[in-house]
Structures are given as structure tokens and as C-alpha cells.
Amino acid sequence: MREKKPVPLIQLLYDDIFLMLLLGLIVPALTYTIWGLIEIISKKVLP
Amino acid sequence: MAEVLVEARTCPVTGLRVVKHAENLIKVNAVFAVLALLFGTIGAILIALTRWEAIHLLPTDLFYRMLTFHGMNMLVFWIVFFEGAGLVFASTIVLNARQVAPKLGYLAVILMILGFLLTNFIILTGDVNETAVMFTAYVPLKAHPLFYLGYILFAVGALIMCILFFLNVYNAKREGTYEGPVPLFTYGIAAAAVIAVFTLVHGALALGSAFLWSLGIIEVVDASLYRLLFWGFGHPAQQINLAAMVSVWYLLSYFTVGGVTPSEKVSRTAFLLYVLFINAGSAHHLLVDPGFGAPWKIFNTSYVIYMAVLASLIHCFAIPASAEIGQRKRGFNKGLFTWLIKAPWSNPAFSAFFISLVIFGFIGGASGVIMGVEQINMKLHNTLGVPGHFHGTVAAGTSLAFMGLAYYVVPLIFRREWLSKFWARIQPFLFGGGLFLMAVSMNTLGRLGIPRRVWETSALVVPYKELLQATLGIGAVVAFLGALVFILHTVLTIIFGKRVEGKPKFPEVVQVSNPDEKTSTPGTIVLAIIFFLYLAIMYTINWYWLSRVWEVR
Amino acid sequence: MAINKPNEVYWEEKVGFSEKAWVLLSIVACIVMFMVMVAWAIAGKQNPPNEAYRVSIPSFAERAEAFIEKYKVDEENGIPVVEAPEDEDSYLIARMFYFSPVLILKQNQTYRIRVSSLDVQHGLSIQPVNMNFQVVPGYEYVLTIKPTEKGEFLIVCNEYCGLAHHVMKGKIIVK
Questions:
Q1: Which among A35, B439, C23, C40 could bridge C44 via Cys, Cβ 3.0 to 4.6 Å?
Q2: Which CATH architecture does the domain made up of C52-174 adopt?
Q3: In whole angstroms, what is the distance from residue C50 CA to residue B291 CA?
Q4: Mean of pLDDT values over B487-494
Q5: Domain containing B223 — which CATH number?
Q6: Residue B282 domain flag
Q7: Given an 8 Å threshold on Cβ–Cβ distance, is A18 in contact with B299?
């Protein structure tokens, strides 16, 4: 067995599947869905 | 550890512990996946022989009905059932863990099956005006309420499967059956599961509101809002495939040639990029819509400065490189391409893996990048180029990769010996070759202006239309045979195949020595550069074509 | 390796030179492709129109009918033929299962054509130029368009809109 090295923080973030879930929902919800909703709502209404 | 209570067996090939409930869930999902594939395949040949207008097989009504039937079964049921099996496998067996809340798992599968049966029943037997609404079912084209209900039941079941996946992973860590970073395959499937949650939430919103509207409970559903929400479902649903397929490629490279991922860090980064940015690509369907402005379109269609394309390009190097390293370590070390020429082409899992990889990249991936350019999309939106693109990705890519994996699932999980090595060996070539011809024909017809989803096109005068429709049809017939061989062979093997005792011999699983040892990959570098040049040329030609049309802004 | 556990600290494994180079090349390609799209949006001559409004179906229908009434010059198979004015917006109606009116345009003249649907979603596909736009009920899409070639152009519907979808046609004449 090799000596146990400390795991770098960035790898810990990579390995956190629940963080992945969180960001994977938030990022596209913001860029695609929320922004898209704003696009639709902000369209001018013709009489 | 809590494993004493869990019924399990040890796989003689991989040494993995196969827990009973997980195995059952995998089996049920796999059976219904194949059933959905059979339905979709029947629809496929009927509509393809109608689009080949020299034959023009189906009457109008039946054509649109079958088109809906084909789309639903292929794009939703076959793919998601198979992924359901993948979710269970990656979160239990691979992690040496038990299935959490197996009853909930069975409930999820039952919901999925109910949705599958209900939707197919209504598509086949309902009033054609209410059921031939296509997989997209755009409001205000109103479908039968049961159509939406079946869709929703299936989506809810699939969502529960995703939640169980995360619970399984959480539980594996908590009970200590698995510690440290998860294997790359599970990482990729986790990415698929995250994308799936996003997808299914949007599906529930879009179809749920359409369902209420079809019952008269709400008065209107805004057509642009529906399009936004539906494509938050319809497109990412195929991105689940993408992440799952890429994971399967890594897995098949490992099984078939002892593939070694060149860099865990880089490949994982690519999966993360998918998770963060690929769902923005839903905008691909809305590029010539009135409801959205250019900044939204450009930012989203580019997957936020092409970050998801970057991810695919990373895999496009890492996966063949992984196979090349495996092959070189097995002694096929001469020259640039000996590793590829001497690859186990008679192992259907390998041929399925490599053919799907190549067609996905050259036909599906390249056409997708091009079609997703906001401006070029004006020349391709709703043309036959769209199904041309996704038959390169979903059919020749994902479906063929899943078929490749099935060549291992049957002997390892169902414990049956394949009845015929011959049919197994030629099947990937039939399916892949047929789809290649078909997708190229569709992409070309689309660029010439032939629309998708249309019964006949006699009013359109297009050069080589008859020829291209014929190659489309012939390709479809060959692919149909390939799919049929796969389905019949799988079903017959599961029913009549000899039980596997000990290690199955076919297809071969290569044992890896020294997983840490890596070689250089000169062959892959050459292949990657060829692909890069091909993409650059196609991209430029399409811009040129765009510059020839009328001015519009 | 794909189903085995990676090294505990895989982060510190070296990335091979060729893979590094490939990733860099890919990043450059991604940025270039993005910049091309932005540049074309600013300076290119073919861009999906940005002007659109939310509108009620009767409001659009009323204005479109008035336009047709005012500029109608002929009728073809029951569909009015309209000579599009140069200084006023034109209208194009999509409905099950035809486009109306037939528009007569002049080559190299810029027109503003307001398009919407009176029922379900349709696809506006001008052939054989092959330009395609989505027509969404409740939204009025303003296409600022300059036909650069003469001839008769077919409009086909390329969004499935019902069982007679494939017969849905229209026409643009460029003189």
C-alpha cells in the first residue's frame, strides 16, 4: 500500500455527486428556463 | 457492514456482487426496453417505406399515427427503459452496494410500464386526430388526455428511478460499502441522472399543463411557453442518452479490449461540462421562434460558448485513446493503426462500440454542431436534416452502443449463452451500416429543403430527390433487418439459450494487466485530427450555403 | 478501468501531452465558433429575425384581413393575391391548411412581413431557397426580408399541423 496522500479540494468537489446534482439543475434552469421565461414575458403585447 | 441480509451472487467474470433486487430491476427494465425497441422498429420500417415515395406504403392517417408511435417508442421508451437498467447497475452492482427501497424501485418500474402501455394503446387505437400529434404534441394541437397521462406516468416512474440512483450512491457511502471516488462509468451515469432530473421536471411541467388543458381544467397553454418547457424535456432527454452512451463506450472499451482511460481527471471534467451546459442546447429547437431574442438564442444554443461541444471533443479523443492503449498493451503495438485493424471486430460488443462511436461523431455530432448555429438553423429547422442528425446520434450512436452492451448483459445478467455467434457478429454492421446510409440521405435531403414529418413532397422539385429517397429507404431496410436480428436473437436467447455456468465465453471479456500503465496513442491523434478537419470543412460549407439565401433580419 | 475505482488521488495523475494539446485545440475551436456566430449576428446578412410581439389571434386576423382587402390585385384558387406595398408592413396568415395571401414582391426590395397562425403551430418554409421559420399562434413574427432572386417560390408548412399537413402550401412571387 502506498502512503495515503491528502485529496485536493478540487477533486473532492468533482467527486461530490450531490453538488453535481445541485449545479446541474441550477445552471441550465437559469440560462435556459428562467431567461427564456423572461424573454417570453417581456415580449410587447399588441392591442 | 449490512451485507449479510442482502441476497446476492458473485459474478464469475467481473467479480462484482450482483444483488437480487437490483438484478430484478435490471431485468424488467431490459425486457421492456427490448419490447419498446420492437414497437419502434415496426414503426420505423413502415414510415421509412412511406417516405420513399416510389413505394409510398402507408395511407396518410396511418403514416402520421405510425410516426407518433415510432417517435415515442424510440426516443422515450426504449432509451429510458435501458437507462433505467443502467442507473440500477451503476449505483448498486458497480459500487458493491444494495438496492435502497426496492419496493419503491418496483413501483417506479410499474409506473413506467403503465405509461408505456397506456400511451401506446391510445396511439394505436384512439381517434387519429387526437393521437397522431407526434412525440412533441405541440399545443394547441390537442391530444387525447390519456396520451398525456401515459407520458406523465412514465416520466414520474423514471424520475423515481433517478432519485433511487442518488439514494443508492448516498447509501453506498454511508454504509461504507464504497469509499472514495466512484468509477468513471458510475460518474458518467450520475451525469446522465442529473440531466434526467432536469429533463423530467420540465417534461412534467409541459405535459402536465397540456394534460390539464386537454381536460378543460385550464383554458390555454401559451404555445411559446410550451415549446420552452417541452424542449427542456425533449432535447435533454436525448442528452441523458449522450451521457449514458459515452459511459457505455468507456465500459465497452474496457470489456472488449481492456481499455484504459488516458486521464480520469480530463474525462470527468468532460462529464461535468455536460452536466452544467448541455441542457442549454434545448434552444436548438427554438432558434427560428418568435418568442426569443438573439442573445438568448446564441448564448444557449452554443451551450454557453460551446462548453458541451468541448466535452464531446474530449471524449472523442479519450475513448478511442482508451481502446488504443488497451490494444497496445495486448501486444498490437506496431505502427499507427495495427491496434485498430487487429481489434476484435468479431466481438459484436466491440464492433457495436466502435461503429457507434464513428457514426455518432461524423454524422450525428458534426451535423448537430452545424444545425445548432443560430443562423444556419434557418436552413435546417424542421427539414429532414433534423431526423438525419438524430438518427446519427440516438439511433446509430446510442441505440447501437446499448446493443453492444446488451451482448454482455445477456450472458452476465440473464445468464444465457447466445444462440448464434454468426448473427451476433454481423448485427452491428447491418444496423450501423443501414443507419449510416439512411442518415446521410436524410441530411442531404434536408439541406435541399425536404421537410420532416410529411406524408408526401411531390410539390417540391429537388435534384436527386428520388435517388436520395431510395438510398434512405434501402438504408432503412438494412437497419431494420439489423434491429430485427438483434431483437429476435435477444428474445430467443433469453427463452431458449443454454444456461451459463461459470464464465461465459462469448463475447470475450479481456482481463487488464497493470491498469496504471499507459502507452502513447499516435493512432488516436491521427483519427482525431481527421475528425477535426472534417468538422471544420462541413462547418465552413454550411456557412457558405447560408450566405447564398435571401437577406433576412 | 471504467467500472473500477480510480486512484484515490486521480487529480494528481499527469495528463499526456497529446491529450493536453487536443483539449487546447478544442477550446480554441469552441471560442472561434462562438465568435463567428456573434459576428454574423452583428454584421451578417442572414439572421433569424428578432422582432416579435405577443398578440391575440383575432387582433392579428383583423389587421391581416384589412391588409389583404386593401392591396388585393387578384385571386388564385380562392387565395387572394396581394402586391406588397413598399412603405407598409405586409401580412402572411398561416392556418389549417393554407397560407394566405400570395405575396408579390420586388427583387432586392426590403419588406417587413408579419407572420402568425390562426390556429395551431405551423412551419413557414420558403422553397427552393430553403429558409425556415416557426409560426406560433399568439405571436406575431416580423420578418424583415429582401428577396435577392426572381421567380415563383413555394411555401410549404414544415411543422406537423394535422392530418392534411402535407397539402398546406402558399406562394411568394418575386418580380
A1: C40
A2: Sandwich (2.60)
A3: 9
A4: 96
A5: 1.20.210.10
A6: yes
A7: no
Residue B510, CB-side half-sphere exposure with 13 Å CA sphere: 26
Kindly state whether residue B13 falls inside one of the protein's structural domains.
Answer: no
Q: For residue B229, is it within any domain?
A: yes
CA distance B280 to B290: 18
- Burial category of B194 from C-beta neighbours within 10 Å (exposed 0-12, middle 13-18, buried 19 and up): buried
Where helices occur in C44-120 by DSSP H, the ranges are: 57-71
Residue range(s) defining the domain that contains residue B426: 19-510+518-547
Chains that touch C (3 or more CB pairs under 8 A): A, B
In this complex, which of C31, C38, C129 lies closest to B550 when CB atoms are compared? C129
| C142 DSSP β-pair partners | C114
Residue C60 has pLDDT above 70, yes or no: yes
Domain ranges in chain C? 14-43, 52-174
Q: Which helix (H) or strand (E) holds B427?
A: helix B421-447
8 Å CB contact of B166 and A25? no
- Tens digits of residue pLDDT in B400-440: 999 999 999 999 989 999 999 999 999 999 999 999 999 99
Residue in A2, A12, A16, A46 to test binding to C, most C beta-carbons within 10 Å: A46
Residue B165 and residue B190 in contact, taking contact as beta carbons nearer than 8 Å: yes
* AA letter at B141: L
Spatial separation of the C-alpha atoms in residues B521 and B260, rounded to whole Å: 11
Residue B480 lies in a domain: yes
Angle at B225 between CA B221 and CA B231, to 5 degrees: 120
Instruction: Indicate the residue of B250, B260, B553 with minimum beta-carbon distance to C49.
Output: B553
Question: B296–A39: do the CB atoms touch at under 8 Å?
Answer: yes
- Preceding amide of C101 cis, omega within 30: yes
Mark out the alpha helices in B285-420 (DSSP H runs).
294-301, 303-329, 338-341, 348-359, 366-371, 385-390, 400-412
